[in-house]
């Protein structure tokens, strides 16, 4: 008599897997529930909480750099008073949305996708997952899915950009990184130097200035900074007059039109835009020399993303004498602070290295097809969503010149359209295939340092629609969901044993 063998555990299969439980992932789940009813799905979140960026970053003053009427979901009105909202308020909004629509029950925390391999024989994705429990124990599991949707953004949340500063080991104070803000830090009455001039730095300076003795923002070169109202008075009036859902749509439309109009103005009339922005800063600071030296970049507005400061809080901190800007290069750290190339020493008890984030393509997932790795940098993006060479795979990429969620929501609705297209046609899978040769361009067309450092690892965009990733919500909203899927999505038959990877070259 032989011992009975334990029954093999069947690998779980889902129709759709969403990677990431942040703003994009929760929005994607809502669209999947409402537009692809009946599809089984789960959201895989590597961290122990939802919220993505808005749960991870805890540095002082963290806030949106877009208004919440457009950064929020079109199906979930933003009801708070502030248009430019703080991080905790945005996190509560995401959590409330997930609870309201039952999305929170579909999130699997502590679950990281470490491998994704498309099987042509089975016409599904085979995912290898690393699951980490509350005690820190890890185990590997397998899961298969018909469609894989990466909603983890394009930042590396485990590692920021951390340049090596000469002499940093000699510094006697505390070095801090915004991405990993320590809970126990006390900078009350201390001298703080914030290295950097991007959105994080201009957020930190006024927030830390409230408690610190003095805060200095040290930048190598100026960044365009624009004061915006923290509260939208026109939106308040509209909300008084109209029902909540209608008011939200009207305010959202108003803000979309304004943001697109201002972006187009900056791109088409750069000299006029430069004068406008420097004029605003001069009126607030009342010092043309300071504005010329520290707030007049060599590049044009929107060559890099423009930093918004609500209610001019950054400039107000400078006027109060609580903050200053120094434009110079670091020669070396010294025990008492930072010595600059000019010879000046910035004395500091705390130095915050707000030197930017690091890009990471689609949550760090390296996709395979039948066991062979697919080089993302060799692929092209279709409609800003799907990639050549990867069947039934989509990514969520927001706008660089407007609220992330505007494109994210359009992409999620397009993904739902593709999934429904598969059902109607009886196709197991589809993959984008261009007609003719595409002239390649970088996926994100901004001159910002954090983009230029890593953009070579990302897929490319083409020179024409639907392979060009446009930065115009009005055009995208009018055309994306009307696209003819039969023209650019090629069916992938399950019977094939050798994958026919589409090539755009």
UniProtKB/TrEMBL annotation:
Cofactor(s) needed by this chain: FAD
Entry keyword NADP: no
InterPro entries named among the record's database cross-references: FAD-binding_MO, FAD/NAD-bd_sf, Flavin_mOase-like
Record keywords, A-Z: FAD, Flavoprotein, Monooxygenase, Oxidoreductase
Pfam families, per database record: FMO-like, NAD_binding_8
Source domain of life: Bacteria
Family recorded in the similarity comment: Belongs to the FAD-binding monooxygenase family.
PANTHER family found in the cross-reference section: MONOOXYGENASE, PUTATIVE (AFU_ORTHOLOGUE AFUA_8G02570)-RELATED (PTHR43872:SF1)
Protein name listed in UniProt: NAD(P)/FAD-dependent oxidoreductase
Organism: Nocardia callitridis
């Amino acid at each position: 008599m032989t011992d009975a063998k334990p029954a093999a555990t069947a690998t779980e299969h889902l129709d759709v897997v969403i990677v990431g439980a942040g703003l994009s992932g929760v929005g994607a789940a809502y669209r999947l529930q409402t537009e692809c009813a009946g599809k089984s799905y789960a959201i895989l979140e590597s961290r122990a909480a939802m919220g993505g960026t808005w749960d991870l970053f805890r540095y002082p003053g963290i806030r949106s750099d877009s208004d919440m009427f457009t950064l929020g979901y079109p199906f979930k009105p933003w009801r708070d008073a502030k248009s430019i909202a703080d991080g905790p308020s945005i996190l509560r909004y995401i959590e409330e949305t997930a609870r309201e629509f039952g999305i929170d029950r579909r999130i699997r925390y502590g679950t990281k996708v470490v491998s994704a391999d498309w099987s042509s024989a089975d016409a599904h994705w085979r995912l290898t997952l690393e699951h980490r429990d509350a005690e820190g124990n890890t185990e590997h599991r397998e899961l298969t899915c018909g469609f894989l949707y990466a909603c983890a953004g394009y930042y590396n949340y485990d590692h920021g950009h951390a340049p090596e500063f000469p002499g940093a080991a000699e510094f006697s104070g505390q070095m801090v990184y915004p991405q990993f803000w320590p809970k126990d830090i006390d900078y009350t009455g201390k001298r703080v130097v914030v290295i950097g001039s991007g959105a994080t730095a201009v957020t930190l300076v006024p927030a830390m200035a409230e408690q610190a003795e003095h805060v200095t923002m040290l930048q190598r070169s100026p960044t365009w900074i624009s004061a915006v109202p923290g509260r939208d008075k026109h939106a308040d009036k509209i909300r008084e007059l109209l029902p909540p859902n209608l008011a939200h749509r009207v305010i959202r439309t108003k803000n979309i039109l304004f943001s697109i109009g201002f972006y187009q103005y900056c791109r088409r009339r750069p000299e006029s835009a430069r004068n406008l922005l420097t004029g605003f800063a001069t009126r607030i600071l009342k010092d043309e020399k300071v504005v010329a030296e520290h707030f007049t970049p060599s590049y044009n507005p929107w060559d890099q993303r423009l930093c918004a400061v609500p209610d001019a809080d950054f400039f107000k901190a400078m006027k109060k004498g609580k903050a200053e800007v120094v434009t110079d290069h670091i020669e070396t750290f010294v025990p008492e602070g930072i010595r600059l190339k000019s010879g000046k020493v910035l004395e500091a008890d705390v130095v915050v290295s707000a030197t930017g984030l690091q890009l990471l393509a689609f949550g760090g997932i390296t996709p395979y097809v039948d066991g062979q790795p697919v080089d993302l940098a060799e692929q092209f993006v279709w409609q800003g969503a799907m990639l050549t060479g990867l069947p039934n795979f989509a990514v969520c990429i927001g706008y660089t010149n407007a609220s992330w969620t505007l494109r994210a929501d359009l992409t999620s609705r397009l993904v739902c359209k593709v999934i429904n297209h598969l059902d109607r046609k009886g196709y197991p899978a589809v993959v984008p295939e261009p007609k003719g040769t595409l002239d390649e361009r970088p996926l994100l067309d901004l001159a910002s340092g954090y983009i230029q450092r890593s953009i070579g690892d990302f897929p490319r965009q083409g020179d024409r629609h639907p392979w060009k990733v446009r930065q115009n919500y009005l055009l995208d909203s009018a055309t994306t969901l009307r696209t003819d899927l039969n023209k650019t999505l090629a069916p992938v038959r399950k019977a094939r044993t050798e994958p026919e990877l589409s090539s755009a070259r």
